[in-house]
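User: I'm curious whether this sequence folds into something compact or stays loose and floppy. Could you predict its structure so I can see for myself?
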Amino acid sequence: MDILHNPYRGVGLSVDALADIPFPSKDAQAPLALLTRCPRAAETPLVDALELAAECGVASIYLKDERGRMGLGSFKALGAAYVIARDAAEGKARGQTYVTASAGNHGLSVAAGAAAFGARAVIYIADTVPETFAERLRAMGADVVRSGADYEASMAAAMAAADAQSAVLLSDSSWAEYTDRPYRVMEGYLALMAEVFTQMETAPTHLFLQAGVGGLAGAAAAIARSVWGDQTRMIVVEPEAAPALIASIKAGAPVETSGPVSAMGRLDCKVPSLIALKGLARDADDFVTLSEAEGNDGAAKAETFGFATTPSGGAGLSALLASEPYRAALGLKVTSRVLCILSEGPEG
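Assistant: Here's the prediction. I'll summarize afterward.
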C-alpha cells in the first residue's frame, strides 16, 4: 500500500489543464427530485458493522450498502440513468442513441436509462470484461461491442462510433471539452450521500472512497466537505495497477498511467476524470493505492463478515482492513467513526 497525504488539500490544483474544468456539483436536490418519480428508486441501507469495527480497532464502521440499488446492483444506477431521465424531461431521449464504454456498472445504468425512456444503448467493452456482464447488458436491450484490450481502448472506440453515428456519447469520465454529461453523471451520485446525511447522526471521522476515473469519489467528497467541513478525513483508494489520481496529485497535473490488468476491474482506469481530479485535489486528504493481494484479501474478509462484494466494490473497506501501521498513518484510532461504501454486489 502506498499512502500520499494530499499537498493541495483545501487549495486544489492550479494548472492550465484544469482551468476550464468545473468542480463537481453539490446539488443533490436535482437527482433526488427525479428519483421520487422512479418506481424502482428506494433508499439503500446504512449498516452498522459492529464486528468489522472490532476487527479494525475503531469505534464504529458504517457501510453504505449500494449492492441493491434500483435492482442494478451498484451506485452507478444513480448516474447515467439520471442523465437520460433529464434528457427525457426535456423531450430529448426517445429515439436517441446513447454510446458509452464501460468496465462494469456504468453500462448497466446507460442500458437501464435507455430502456426506460425509449432510447437505444450501445455499450463498448474491452476484451477483458467478463461475458456474463455482456449478457446482462444484452438482456436489458443494449447492443454490446467488444473493442480493445482495456477500458481506454474501448472508450476510444466508443468516442469514434458516437462521432460517426451522430449519437450521444455518455461517459462517466471527463476530459477537455467533454464535461457536461459526466458532470451530470456525477451529480446523480450525490443522491447516495444525501441519504447518508439523513442516516448518520454524527459526521464520520474518516470516509474511504474507492476510485476508478474518480466520479463517485469526486462527487461524494465535494458534497461531504460542504456538509461536514473539516470534521471528516477523506481517503481516496485506487488499485496500484491503475493509480491515475494519486499519480496526477504527485505530478501536480493530470497524467495517464500504465499497469497490468487489475482484479479491481471496475477501478482499472488509467486516466483520471478531470472533473473528479479537480474536486479531489481540493477535497481529499489522502490518496491510497492497493496491491492486488490487498484488494482480494479485503473482499474475502468482507464476505466472512456477511458483506459479499468484489475487490472493486470493497476497495475502500480493504484499505481500512490493511495492517496496523497503515491504519495509524491514516489517523485511525479506537475513537474513530468510519464510513465506507460497498459500491457493488458480487459477480454473477
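Summary: The two ends are 29 Å apart (CA to CA). The longest strand covers residues 233-239.
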